[in-house]
Amino acid sequence: MFRGIVQGRGVIKSISKSEDSQRQGIVFPEDILKLVDVDTVMLVNGCSLTVVRILNDTVYFDIDQALGTTTFDKLKEGDQVNLEVHPKFGEVVGRGGLTGNIKGTASIVEVEDNEVGLSVLIDIPKALAENLTVQDDIGINGISSSIISMSNSVITLHYPRDLFVKTNLATFSKDMKVNVEILNEW
């Protein structure tokens, strides 16, 4: 289990694609780079991935099975991704813990920037939204949040402004696709 609390942002430096997989090289902030090694399991935009190589400040991941359920095939060089290193054994995870098992993608319908933060409306695919209710926790790009309101399959989430420093929330825009982890399934 992960905390669902993003520790920092990485920037995609390179993407090498083959027919059914890709390797992404992501430039890591120095404080997170110190926490990883080859075989470290971590969240990248909410998806559990394993570090396969580290070269200077760039950390590499091989992505195959996750291509069908995540936004990885849509990302490009220069895009920002949220990063969270797996907590050490015995550390408390908390209520909004994430597994890194992305169930699908969703589309941002509206982003409202206000004085306290960001209100984001996200259209969750009906198959994923059928068991969701207000106050449920949900993971969006690795950020665990409680659903504030819901109308059909459109949920509203609020993110405080202080999350902008370490996450890619500032890049959220209408029609953008995001990774979704449903937390009430287990």
Mind sketching the topology for me?
Layout lengths: L7 E10 L4 E6 L2 H4 L7 E4 L2 E9 L2 E6 L16 E6 L18 E11 L2 E7 L2 H4 L7 E4 L2 E4 L2 E3 L2 E7 L16 E6 L4
Structure description:
- By secondary structure, the protein is mostly beta strands.
- The chain has two domains: 8-85, Beta Barrel (Elongation Factor Tu (Ef-tu), domain 3); 104-182, Elongation Factor Tu (Ef-tu), domain 3 (Beta Barrel).
- Helices cover 4% and strands 45% of the residues.
- It is built from two helices and 13 strands.
- The strands form two sheets. The chain has a seven-stranded antiparallel β-sheet, with no helix packed on it.
- Strand 1 (8-17) and strand 2 form a beta hairpin.
- The protein is globular, with a radius of gyration of 16 Å.
- The mean pLDDT is 92.
- This is Lumazine-binding domain-containing protein.
Query: Are there runs of 5+ residues with pLDDT below 50, and where?
Result: none
Radius of gyration of CA atoms, rounded to a whole number: 16 Å
What is the number of E strands? 13
Rounded to the nearest angstrom, the distance between the terminal CA atoms is: 12 Å
| CATH structural class of the largest domain | Mainly Beta
Domain module count: 2
Identify the quaternary structure here.
Answer: single chain
CATH architecture of the largest domain: Beta Barrel
Binned strand content: 35-45%
Protein name: Lumazine-binding domain-containing protein
Keywords: Repeat
Domain Lumazine-binding: 1-96, 97-186
Lumazine-binding repeats: 1-96, 97-186
